[in-house]
């Protein structure tokens, strides 16, 4: 079943076409990667899915519902969560608080509940706090929960960002370069972690990634973007052999040479 | 100097960080404040007035703290809501229109009116950030002041509204500064209670998240439009409350009471106390409102000395006297029902 589909999506910035008539069908429970050279429009597409940008043309459907004209907070309520290429945490809040904010769509307490401390408020806050503590454990940040997000080491910040995204219990998780800046061992760990999210939590994963070892190791299907256009789609093996992909990455000359060596 | 201030504030922080120390300190401060008007001493009237006035600024500070400190919306026109609250009471309970509605009825109305004005200001500035927001709100504060100056039929212009009714409480006419001293004290406690509870809830977390990164906050599901308007409304409501109390206490109000300096002072006391910090607002109010009055004996050098103190303060402690402290929320393993993460996270996840 398709969980997310993008039909003919085009996003322009002035004269620049960042995403050009992009079609994508994301299967439920897949681990699907979008790759492409810098500036290919990958993050722009993420921003279109999450409602941060509204595409000029085309439409995106999530579970059959059109996302057209929805604000990011509405889209978050529908069950889409994301992380950012350049980590965007709430720096002056603690790790736990970051996760609590992440639970926002699932909490209902009104300002009046908060002032009066109604039983409903107490129950909800307690459950939210317990859940946040569980997520801290789940992403391996035990003992760091009360530290301000900005004081956490880089790797911990990445994991906290994922924990914040998971806090809303999303059905679809968009990961923008989750292994950026990690060494091979950390990347391998992150790959296992991402696979776990899908296998144990039943979350569909769409990721942007530059590290080819990660992309080829984890993806079930890969979509390649170049200059905003989809140039290839398929399994990791198919993509590795695809001459257009090699050309986009390494130029025409290299394409002919490498294409022969790659298998 | 710098070192000494740092070490004193370090000690203060230590005391404040233990719950017993904190409650002892709060209890002591509250006791002193409650007792002052009961002691007979030469300058009693002066102190009651100054501390009462400080209390009024604590109320204003707590209100603006919601907008600036928590939600991160730089509002330089906060005085507008103070003015709206004050004029609402003055016009409805004075000889001006010969309407004499009870203070306790007008008070919630004045607060709600100011809150409504907060939303009206909020709507056009939703998309503005930082300096742009500051400029528009600055203008809003001035517009309200100009309106009360020039709508002479309604507000009597620069002649002001005089002969404002005193509130009555169980037949007792509240007219002395001591009466208002205690009344303001109760309102300070109430406003601290409300703002602290908002701060420590989903609402306060959303405000702070918005302050930290508006886009990311919206992406995790915070309806930034609603929470910005809510912050403006809550802040304005509290400002209107302060204004109505001010009008009742003074018995007469003039447009000049509501100039830009009020907004600036309230903003300064928040910054000096520590952005987003409720104890900070209290300390900041004493530093900024009480201190200049104490320094009155230095007459002309008063503001010079005061300015000097502010500069020293900002160099020694740029984050404020009592910077906002985040609460410790990490539970120990034994407190968690099940340490295994996945079962609870999975539920409803698919």
Characteristics of this structure?
heterodimer; A: 263 residues; alpha/beta; Rossmann fold; 2 domains; four-stranded antiparallel sheet; 11 helices; globular; B: 350 residues; mainly alpha; two-stranded antiparallel sheet
The H-and-E topology of chain B, N to C, reads as: HHHHEEHHHEEHHHHHHHH
What structural class do the secondary elements of chain A suggest?
A: alpha/beta
Helix content of chain B: 55-70%
**CATH C-level category of the largest domain in chain A:** Alpha Beta
Mean pLDDT of chain B: 88
Walk me through the structure:
The complex is a heterodimer of chains A (263) and B (350). Chain A has 11 helices and 10 strands. Chain A has helices at residues 42-49, 72-78, 95-102, 111-116, 119-138, 154-166, 184-201, 212-218, 236-241, 243-250, 252-261; strands at residues 2-13, 16-27, 31-35, 57-62, 65-66, 80-82, 172-176, 204-208, 221-226, 229-234. In chain A, the strands form 2 sheets. A 6-stranded mixed beta sheet of chain A has the order 6-7-8-3-9-10, sandwiched between helices. The radius of gyration of chain A is 20 Å and the shape is globular. The model of chain A has no long low-confidence stretch (mean pLDDT 91). Chain B has a domain at 56-168 and 187-271. In chain B, the strands form 2 sheets. A two-stranded antiparallel sheet of chain B has the order 1-2. In chain B, α3 runs antiparallel to α11 and α4 packs across α11. In chain B, 44% of the residues are buried. Chain B has 350 residues and is mostly helical. Classes of the chains: A alpha/beta (263), B mainly alpha (350). Chains A and B meet through α2, α3, α4, α5 and α6 of A and α8, α9, α10, α11 and α15 of B.
């Amino acid at each position: 079943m398709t969980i997310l589909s993008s039909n003919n999506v085009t996003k322009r910035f002035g004269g620049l076409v960042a995403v050009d008539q992009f079609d994508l069908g994301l299967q439920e429970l897949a681990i699907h990667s979008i790759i492409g050279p810098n500036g290919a429009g990958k993050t722009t597409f993420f921003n279109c899915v999450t409602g941060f940008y509204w595409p000029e043309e085309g439409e995106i459907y999530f579970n059959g519902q059109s996302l057209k004209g929805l604000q990011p907070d509405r889209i978050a309520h529908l069950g889409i969560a994301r992380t950012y290429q350049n980590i965007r945490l709430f720096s002056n809040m603690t790790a736990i608080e970051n996760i609590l904010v992440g639970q926002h769509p699932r909490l209902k307490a009104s300002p009046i509940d908060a002032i009066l401390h109604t039983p409903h408020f107490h129950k909800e806050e307690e459950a939210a706090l317990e859940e946040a503590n569980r997520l801290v454990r789940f992403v391996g940040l035990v003992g760091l929960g009360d530290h301000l997000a900005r004081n956490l080491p880089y790797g911990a910040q990445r994991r906290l960002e994922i924990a914040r995204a998971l806090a809303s219990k999303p059905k679809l998780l968009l990961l923008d370069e989750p292994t950026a800046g990690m060494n091979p061992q950390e990347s391998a760990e992150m790959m296992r972690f991402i696979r776990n999210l899908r296998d144990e939590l039943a979350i569909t994963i769409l990721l942007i990634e530059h590290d080819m070892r990660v992309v080829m190791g984890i993806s079930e299907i890969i979509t390649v973007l170049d200059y905003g256009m989809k140039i290839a789609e398929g399994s990791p093996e198919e993509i590795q052999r695809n001459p257009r992909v090699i050309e986009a990455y390494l130029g025409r000359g290299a394409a002919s040479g490498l294409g022969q060596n790659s298998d | 100097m710098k070192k000494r201030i740092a070490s004193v504030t370090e000690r203060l922080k230590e005391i404040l960080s233990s719950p017993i120390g904190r409650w002892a300190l709060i209890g002591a401060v509250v006791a002193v404040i409650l007792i002052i008007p009961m002691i007979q001493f030469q300058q009693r009237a002066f102190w009651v007035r100054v501390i009462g006035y400080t209390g009024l600024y604590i109320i204003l500070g707590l209100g603006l703290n919601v907008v600036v400190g928590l939600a991160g919306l730089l509002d330089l026109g906060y005085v507008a809501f103070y003015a709206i609250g004050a004029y609402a009471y003055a016009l409805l309970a004075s000889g001006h229109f010969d309407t004499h509605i009870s203070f306790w009825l007008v008070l919630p109305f004045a607060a709600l009116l100011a809150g409504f004005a907060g939303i009206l200001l909020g709507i056009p500035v939703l998309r503005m950030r930082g300096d742009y927001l500051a400029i528009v709100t600055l203008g809003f504060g001035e517009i309200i002041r100009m309106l009360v100056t020039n709508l002479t039929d309604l507000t009597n212009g620069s002649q002001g509204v005089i002969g404002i009714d005193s509130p009555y409480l169980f037949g007792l006419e509240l007219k002395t500064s001591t009466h208002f001293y205690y009344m303001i004290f109760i309102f300070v406690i109430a406003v601290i209670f409300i703002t602290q509870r908002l701060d420590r809830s989903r609402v306060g977390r959303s405000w702070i998240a918005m302050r930290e990164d508006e886009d990311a906050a919206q992406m995790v599901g915070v309806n930034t439009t609603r929470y910005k308007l809510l912050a403006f409304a809550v802040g304005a409501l509290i400002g209107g409350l302060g204004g109505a109390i001010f009008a009742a206490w003074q018995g007469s109000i003039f447009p000049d009471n509501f100039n830009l300096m009020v907004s600036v002072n309230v903003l300064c006391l928040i910054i000096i106390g520590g952005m987003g910090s409720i104890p900070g607002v209290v300390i900041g109010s004493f530093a900024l409102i009480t201190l200049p009055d104490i320094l009155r004996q230095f007459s002309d050098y008063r503001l010079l000395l005061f300015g000097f103190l502010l500069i020293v303060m900002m160099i020694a402690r740029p984050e404020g006297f009592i910077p906002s402290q985040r609460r410790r929320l990490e539970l120990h393993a034994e407190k968690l029902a099940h340490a295994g993460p996945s079962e609870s996270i999975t539920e409803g996840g698919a």
